[in-house]
Write the structure tokens for this entry.
Amino acid sequence: MIKKFDKKDEESGSGSNPFQHLEKSAVLQEARIFNETPINPRRCLHILTKIIYLLNQGEHFGTTEATEAFFAMTRLFQSNDQTLRRMCYLTIKEMANISEDVIIVTSSLTKDMTGKEDIYRGPAIRALCRITDTTMLQAIERYMKQAIVDKVPSVSSSALVSSLHMVKMSYDVVKRWVNEAQEAASSDNIMVQYHALGLLYHLRKNDRLAVTKMLNTFTKSGLKSPFAYCMLIRIASRLLEETDGGHDSPLFDFIEGCLRNKHEMVVYEAASAIVHLPNCRARELAPAVSVLQLFCSSPKAALRYAAVRTLNKVAMKHPSAVTACNLDLENLITDSNRSIATLAITTLLKTGSESSVDRLMKQISSFVSEISDEFKVVVVQAISALCQKYPRKHSVMMNFLSNMLRDDGGFEYKRAIVDCIIGFIEENPESKETGLAHLCEFIEDCEHTVLATRILHLLGKEGPRTPTPSKYIRFIFNRVILESEAVRAAAVSALAKFGAQNDDLLPSVLVLLQRCMMDSDDEVRDRATFYMNVLQQKQKALNAAYIFNGLTVSVPGLEKSLHQYTLEPSEKPFDMKSVPLATTPINELKTELTPIVTTKLPEKVAPSRQDIYQEQLSAIPEFKGLGPLFKSSDPVQLTEAETEYVVRCIKHTFTNHIVFQFDCTNTLNDQLLQKVIVQMEPSEAYEVVHYVPAANLPYNQPSSCYTLVRLPDEDPTAVSCTFSCTMKYLVRDCDPNTGEPDEDGYDDEYLLEDLEVTVADHIQKVLKPNFGAAWEEVGDDFEKEETFALASVKTLEEAINNIISFLGMQPCERTDKVPENKNSHVLLLAGVFRGGHDILVRSRLALADGVTMQVTVRSKDEIPVDVILASVG
Amino acid sequence: PYTVEPSLYTVKAVLILDNDGERLYAKYYDDTYPTVKEQKAFEKNIFNKTHRTDSEIALLDGLTVVYKSNIDLYFYVIGSSHENELMLMSVLNCLFDSLSQMLRKNVEKRALLENMEGLFLAVDEIVDGGVILESDAQQVVHRVALRVGYLGRKRIKLVLRIIRLTCNLL
């Protein structure tokens, strides 16, 4: 006997891990003893452990070998060794996806799940559900229902959790177990309560009424399980958010009441829920903030972390609500958990005064290298917020950021810093040169193509307008020599911009571009050749159109139009005006600072919302001949929320037509609507050409109908119009349970709110990165100017916001931001008028008693100019 | 959405690493890290960021990681960054306490490796497909129900090893 143990010891060696050198093939060889009689439970157990260990290490098992081992393992069900049987269940679960014919163990598992050994029943249910499909689930339905209400908690929990896993696959079967789950929810066992609640919510979550009822029952009855309470809080806050429930709602009272629960987990969940509710005001925040303040001094690191992380979030929106915690946060600055310290400092940066900034920055630089990238990003975010608050501190922070830029760090971290510096440069013109210098230094040694190209683009845009543009040329040309294709191409584009703007640099830029024409990459060569030829013409208009302000069309749209053009041979040259415009400015997409969750960059240009509409509309035969879709508006609600029918409208503008898309939802479960149209009565000379009805509008399944309207030809400046709208349809009453409609129906109608078409529906936003160049390019052939007094407007910001939203044009050169303490401002707007003509607006605003506004409009056609001036007046 | 989707799926992974950062146990409950390669890279990252500190909680790769170390073992429970940190903590504590009871307070690599089946069964009782199944260590130990006789045999083995080592020394 002793000898045997000795031998075993030598096998496992003196090394620390007896499993370290396991060979899969050797273990599978050993598994043959499963077939020996009598079964040796201890040895078999050891082998199963080895198999699971190998699977756990990520070892790959082929189907054949896995199936062989699995079948051998099934024999072990003959043994009554408890641990061995439990390991069999585990093996079944681990192999469910790799072995074939796993369903062979169904009857053994069904036997165990209904047998006398309680210790087997729970795990057997879990293993069985792992290998079951919808058809088989119906066969064991009776047992599952019994198990859910079983008095042994482990059995009931196992059945509930397994049911939850099965919902995805067999919703209709599991739905039938709602009554059993309901019964389980009143169990005394805290885990059973929790699991039952989770399953019930999952089955009912699309039925708001049922969820509300369920919440009412449980919040009144009082559950014992802290987990279940957390779940209830989440359900309640989700419901509050969906229904826009106010803070006087009983749901809010429930959440607030949970702040006094005896479990920290529940208290924290409630505080966090309150903090995350939209439109939360200081008064509702206060009790949540005070429990979080208490948690700041907890001996548990996880609780301190949770508290300070949540306070940090509060401070982003309501810094004043957190000032009360400043003292507690100060104590956390020296916390041994660096994550907690960082969060405390960044929170203080948001809530503290300008005088504390230097001290906090010094503190954080002492350990910034010790924290993970995620928190470095949090630090950068805090700094970025700080710059906006205290613009005078920008030199301190710019220094700090440039130091951070030199440190090691991943892409997300570097991107956050670069975003922050770019934001700086744009907000504070005086920091432009320092910022550009730091970025130049960074791209000298930057491994991230995306960032390098972004910075090069910025250099091309900003560099030529600095006092000494020549100093950037070296940094840019270095990239042409040293970097990958994408970066080289971006560098070539940047160079061209310097040549176009600075006449004295043009000869040297041309020399450099000449060299780039020998590049090994097509794209780089093509760009160099193209820019070379444009620059040699020395014409401002060409420079503006092809170098400063690039294409404004949608890329997927261009691809489709070109493809179409090649399919239909034609004498006419391809017309760029026939391509739909890009709906979001491509060049200056300001990336939101929301890191934490890592985002994967999209591989391809995703079609925009408008590209999708274009696709959908062109599939409707009635809209075939309308030409390219010019603009789609944001949805306009035509009904109040919570009415019988919910209708919203999207206005699609084409060259000579508007298509009104009505998205309708029928919220009555005892009605089926058919042949739904929205009849429109225009106030002006607009002509309704066609109605495309929605054939069926069943309960809760949104569907769309369309109205096609022709724009008036006689008076092209008549751009605005009011439509009165009535929804007309055939009602068929139906059985709310089965959805079976009556044979006969009757006509009915429903009055909707009026719909406005305004000047903004005829203009598409377009960004001109270099407005001055575009202004020159369009020229003054049709320039008109007029002065207006806006008496009711009190501030420049208000005036600017009004003009932008009224005209629906794109503000350029960041002129939508008014510097502090200024009495006058110039707003630059760009857009394209329906039909394809660029339209530019320069609006000089002066603040006296009200706001006086001098508007200058340029376009290559007279009509758009008149339209703008007519509508502003 | 501002609020967390109400769901029972709380745990994304449970890991146990040794003091070289090698995987002793790893169970991933969703597709955050679909391949073994990505998992190992994540584990390496997690170990590098945590093994020198005993800070209990960190944010890594946009995930909340709660952890605990004992002698030569590192225990981790991972969840979404929106998850209630204390819930994840209750899973970690339950795992640690269950093992501590099963290994008679002897929570170290050698003892754990000799009771791998106990570990497998315990985690299976604590988390099922990402759902917290049980958070009370007492219940877990009871349900795993490794018979004392079995652990006893391991003890004999241990005693024999000690005897042998002593003999060698002599």
Observations:
- Confidence is low (pLDDT under 50) at residues 1-15, 585-603 of chain A.
- Chain A has 38 helices and 17 strands.
- Chain A touches chain B through 76 residues (CB under 8 Å).
- Residues 190 and 869 of chain A are 70 Å apart (CA to CA).
